[in-house]
Structure formats: structure tokens, C-alpha cells
Specification:
Blueprint: E1 3-4, H1 7-14, E2 27-33, E3 36-43, E4 49-58, E5 60-61, E6 70-72, E7 76-85, E8 92-100, E9 112-114, E10 123-127, H2 134-142, E11 149-152, H3 157-166, E12 181-184, E13 187-189, H4 195-204
Parallel strand pairs: 1-8, 10-11
Antiparallel strand pairs: 2-3, 3-7, 4-6, 4-8, 5-7, 7-9, 10-12, 12-13
């Protein structure tokens, strides 16, 4: 079993260099394929970062030399290093990160995978029957970096029942609504008509 010290603990023990401009720490994810262990840097910030990783431990081999900075674009996942697992060994390692938003021309630029990140408030879209604007909101939202959840009421009886209870005392019953019902955190809206209005309302929740 792989044993890894959490990034936050390592930051305390070994001193991660990180810019104050980033809101979230770089996370490291591991993936094993055959006799190789790949370590990925996950950047959930809205800015690009240069990241170097130093790995120490036993049960594996790695390329020698001083670690180079790798460009990890905003909201992306990048393979930082590949460790060769020694035959019959269980890798045990710790790592330190050097993170900077002062981007260097010398940083390696690798292939990256775009990821979705948590918005300022959780986004949930309930799709009522014969919704007139759901597609025009969900389609552009799918192109953003925000995570969101969608419930089609015709296919989710539990979600429908919850909304029916929520609308039981409202002036407008659920059966009369044919536009997207959108929850941003604890607040629910039935008057958001466009994607642009959704983004504006999402920005308001940050205040």
C-alpha cells in the first residue's frame, strides 16, 4: 500500500513555497500503471502556476537531477513525475512542492487535462417538464470550469417530490414552472432566464 504524507502536513514539515495569489494549494494525485507510479499536480486555481516536485522515499527509482518547474495551467491536471517501482517493492514516499505564480519561460510545458472546480456556491439545476431555457443555460455551463449538478425531474422522482414540498406554500406551483429551477448554495431561483444571468448571480454570491 502506498503511504503518502498529506500536502498540508508536508507544507508544515518541509516548507512548501507558494504564492499568496493562489487560493488553493496544489494537490498531488497518484496513478499506478504496471510498474510505474505517476504523480499529477492538480491546480484548482484560476491562475497558471509553475510547480516543481521533489520526491524522496524507498521502493522506486526516479530520474536523477534537480527538479524543473512545470507549467500547470489554471483548472488543470498535469503529470509531474514518473517513478519506476522496484520489483517486489511497495513504494513509500514523501514529496515537497515549490509553487510560484511568477511564470518562467524556462518552465516545462507538458500536456494537461482540464478539470472542473467547485464554484463559489454549489450549482444545482432542476429541469422541469418542457423546460424552455434549460438547454441554453446548461450547454454554455458545460463549457466552463465549474462543477454543477443537474436533475431532470421527469427522471428523478425523489428530486421532484422535494421540490413539490418546497413549492407547496409558494404562489406558483411546481407544475406551472417550465423554466430552469436553479439552486446556488441554499438559495433557489426560478427567474434566471439565461446563462449570463446565472453567471452574474453566481458572482453576487461571492460577496
Amino acid at each position: 500500500m502506498l503511504r503518502v504524507l498529506p500536502t498540508i502536513l508536508l507544507a508544515f514539515m518541509l516548507g512548501i513555497t507558494a504564492s499568496q495569489a493562489q487560493d488553493k494549494e496544489i494537490q498531488i494525485e497518484e496513478e499506478q500503471k504496471s510498474n510505474r507510479l505517476f504523480l499529477y499536480a492538480v491546480n484548482e486555481n484560476l491562475i497558471d502556476l509553475d510547480v516543481a516536485i521533489t520526491v524522496e522515499g524507498t521502493g522506486f527509482r526516479q530520474r536523477k537531477g534537480k527538479p524543473r518547474k512545470v507549467r500547470v495551467p489554471a483548472t488543470s491536471r498535469v503529470n509531474m513525475i514518473s517513478l519506476v517501482i522496484e520489483r517486489g517493492q511497495t513504494p513509500e514516499y514523501t514529496y515537497t512542492l515549490d509553487v510560484s505564480d511568477s511564470l518562467s519561460r524556462r518552465a516545462l510545458k507538458k500536456e494537461f487535462e482540464k478539470i472542473r472546480i467547485a464554484p463559489p456556491k454549489p450549482i444545482t439545476i432542476y429541469v422541469p417538464d418542457n423546460c424552455t431555457n434549460c438547454d441554453s443555460i446548461i450547454a454554455p455551463l458545460e463549457q466552463t470550469h465549474w462543477r454543477y449538478t443537474t436533475y431532470v425531474l421527469a427522471e428523478n422522482e425523489s428530486a421532484r417530490m422535494q421540490l413539490e414540498r418546497a413549492f407547496s406554500t409558494a404562489s406558483r406551483p411546481l407544475s406551472d414552472i417550465n423554466t430552469a429551477i436553479i439552486a446556488l448554495g441554499p438559495n433557489m431561483y426560478i427567474y434566471i432566464q439565461t446563462f449570463e444571468e446565472l453567471m452574474a448571480k453566481l458572482e453576487e454570491t461571492e460577496e
